[in-house]
Structures are given as structure tokens and as C-alpha cells.
Amino acid sequence: MNGRFPRRRLFQVVAANLARLLFGGAARSWARNIGSTAPALCSMALLLLMSGLVGLTAFTLRNVEQVQASQASLLHVYLRDDASGVDVSALFERLRTDPRVAGVAYVTKEDALARAQTIPGLPQLAQATDSNPFPASLDVQVKNIDDMGAIDALVRDESVVDPEQPTSYDRGAYQRLQAVLFGVAVAGLAFLGLLGFVAVTVTMNSVKSAIHARRDEITIMQLVGASRWMVRGPFVVEGAITGGLSGSLAGLATFGLAAAAVALGSESFAQFAPGVTVTVAAVAGALVVVAGLALGSGSSLLTLRRHMES
Amino acid sequence: MRPDVPSRPIVELRSVSRAYGSRVAVDDVDLTLHPGELTFLVGPSGAGKTTLLRLINREIRPTSGEVSVAGIPAHAIKASRVAELRRLVGVVFQDYKLLPRLTAVENVAFGLQVADLRVSDEEATDRALDALEAVGLGDRGKSFPGQLSGGQQQRVAIARAVVAQPPVLIADEPTGNLDQDTAWEIMDLFEDIAAWGTAVLVATHNVDIVTRLQRRVVTLVQGRLVRDQPAGQTGRMAWLATS
Predict the structure, then answer these.
(1) 10 Å Cβ neighbour count for A301?
(2) Which of A134, A177, A207, B162 has the fewest CB atoms below 10 angstroms from its CB?
(3) Across the interface, do B87 and A221 touch by the CB < 8 Å criterion?
(4) What domains are defined for chain A?
(5) ipTM score here?
(6) How far does CA B153 lie from the centroid of its chain?
(7) Mind telling me how many Å the CA of A226 is from chain B's nearest CA?
(8) Disruptive mutation site among A9, A23, A227 for chain B (greatest number of B CBs within 10 Å)
């Protein structure tokens, strides 16, 4: 054989044989075994869809956590409507020169109203009354979140501060949020792990039945001296076809659901799911397809290691 | 005519034993096969004939001892090198093991191409047709296995086993499913293949054929090689082949 063909011709022959024996054989076998593959395809698609949605949720929660972390070190000091400008300036200056404070900003009642109108639900509240219900405030950015309590204690008894609702300080709010996020993450991972186990098991069973259906072919290939990857390759490709199809279905569904949610409620969605855009949804969909390919071919490899002799 | 048997063996088994749990299937067997030699492996059912063939083809490893095929240590090679060894050993089964969806020529070409991806379709078809011609089925290349008789299917299986011209051919009860006339035709083929220089080892129960062909006969009983009679001296041992 060696040297009989020019190298290019040899490459064509090998490529053609690979395409027919490896990919063509896998595709035919996959189509023949569609009955036993369908449950694996469905469970894997479901798993991947859930993975995509959980992934997007995790992305959202991470962004929420970051927003909350930045907001947790921001203290709103609400001012009385009748506070004098001199007193407010004095408090402003005291806070600005405090070494624990990174910065102070004065927010007028109009600015507060404008900000509220970007938050879901609050525009209706604002329109429910003739007057502007939102107070002016001093927004104090604290350097260390641990100093929030001390700054709050410093300002809450000041005469210019609203006695009813002096500040936005809520002891332990950030820690509670972190605890909730951690719990959600653990629950999500456990749920995904369970779904993953089911999908891998079902896929392994479908590959096992494919091996059983083709045992004569496998025996012949092994005995005529086909290399191990030549014998195993078609089953890995079969698994990849199942995983790729499941991933494509789940990826499309993930992208569709996320993109629809973005399009339907763009304003409120941006508040509840910060950072989730159509681009992010497309990336999530693509990742789901890749995960499907890896899951399908990986499950096949695992099955082959267990159920096929060398 | 059978060529002269050269001194250098193509298959060597040295003190080979194989046990399945506590049951010893092959027990301390020494055996050599030479190119161009047709050897019959006889013995009652359960004597270890199939195990011995599987050891040569490295379907299984010996529990102890050494198996060498064309210089390759079958007992010691890694799984990644098994394919290389198997390309040196053609295999024929009692139940033919043809793929029913492929025609005769496709079955033979399939064996050729999965073992060597560099073989083009045209070359595989040409060589498969040549092999079918050699086993007397040159006109049945387009037939599917279901359209062929048992003897014809076994000929296709033999064509597949020899199409890559391996130096060793092993056959496990190749005539077990065939009538006596067809069995003789198959044995004639094995003689021809041996005459081309291939070492042929045939496990069989067919006493009549073993007796009349007067070839080398190796007898296994309860896993032990109890007799190794050279060609022309097989008349008195044939009773051992009965199960």
C-alpha cells in the first residue's frame, strides 16, 4: 500500500473511509436505534434545558449579588422636607471629611422621584399622590461595609434627618442575601446533579443496547484487526449525535425563553435579571449545545469502557 | 502439493495454561505452527480447543505461559497493539458471522477496510472479488448472506478471513453446520490456503475428514495436549475426536 498513491489521493481515501465507516455507520445505526435512543434524547434535552435556565439564573444571581454588594456599602440618609440648606450642608461636610467615608452625594427630591420611576412598581406609587413622596437624601458611600452601623448611628439623630425613616441601613441584610444565594446555588447544583445522573444513565443504556444490536459487527471488526478507536468511534459519534441533537433542542429553547423574556419585559426584567441580554441568552444556548455534545459522547465513552472488550 | 515446512514457526505456545476461575481450560500446552502447514485440532467437547484458538488470536490472555504470533508476544502486548496482532490472524467461525445487510463482496471488503483505512473502495472491491473468486464464489459477489447456502456463506467467511493475506488462519468448527460434501469442499479450500504458505489451524469434530486428509493432528483432552501426530500418521487417533 505504502507509496502506491500520491499523498493527496491517500488522504482522500482515508477521509472517505472514515466518513463512511465512522460517521456514516454511526448515523445509520443511530437512525436504526431511534426507538431506544428517544428516551435518552428527551431526558438529555430536558436536563440541558434545565441546565441552561439554571445557568442563566446563576448568572443573574451573581449579578444581583454584585449589585447588592455595591449597594450594601451605600447608605441613604433621608432628609426632612423642611431641613434647612445650611444644616444639610453642615452634615454633608461632616460626612465628606469622615475618614470612613469614600464619598457623599446630595440627591434632591426630584432626583429621587426620577430614580424611583425606573424601579418596577414605584412609578404607580409616585402617581398615586399629587405631591412627590420621595425625600431628598445624602448618599454616603462607605469605605468598609463594617462601618455602616457606626455611620448610621452618627447621622440618624441629626435634626435634618427624617425621624420616621432616618436611613436605609438594615443590619445583616447583605449577609442574609448571601445566605439565600448560597442555598439557592446548592439546591440548583443538587438538582442538576440528579438530572445529570438520570440523563447519563439513560444515555448509557441506549448505547449499551446499540452495542448489543451491533455485537456481530463489533466482533467482526475486532477480529479482522480494526483498531480500538475504529471499533469504538461509531458509538462515540452516535452518543455525540444524541447529545448534539438534545443540546440543539435545549439550546434553542434556552435562547428562545431567555430572549422572549428580555423582549417582553425589558424594563422590569433588567431589574430582576440584571445583565441578561439577547447576547447572553445566545451564549447560554451555544454552551448548552456544547454541553450536549460532551454529555452524549462522554456517556458513550463511559459505556464502552464498561461493556466492550478490547 | 503442500510446500516444505520451514523450520521457523509462525505461532508458538510455550507452557501455556488458561483457567476460568478454578476450571483449567488449557493446561501447560506447548505447540508450534509453521507457515504452509494445515493442522487439525481435535478433542472432545470442553477439551479446550476454542480456548486455544482464542489465545492465539489474543481474544484472551493465558493465565501463564507465552504465546507468540509472527514474533509478537500475544500474552504480553498492550490492548492498543491487539489490532496489529489480529491483522496477522484470519478467523473463521462455525456460524460464519457475516453481516446480513452487506453483500458477499461488501462483507469481504468491509473486513479489509476497517482494518486498513488506506484501502480505497475500488481496491477493496477488486481484492474482495479476487478472494471470492479464489473460494469459488466469483459470480455471487452481489448476493446477500440470506441468499446463499451454508457452504457458500462459509466460503464468503473464508474469503473475508484471507483477503488481507494473513500468515495465520484459525477456524473453529468451520464445518459444524455443513453437510459432509460441503465440508469436504471447505477442507479443500483450507488445503489450498495452506499451500499458499499460510499456517492453518482447524478445530474440528469431523473424524472422517481428519482421518482421510492425513495432515498433522493435535489432540487436546481436558486442556492437555495429549498427542501431536505429524502428517501421514493420523489413522489410529481419530477416535479421540469424538465428543
Answers:
(1) 16
(2) A177
(3) no
(4) 23-68+175-307 (no CATH), 80-161 (3.30.70.3040)
(5) 0.75
(6) 16
(7) 4
(8) A227
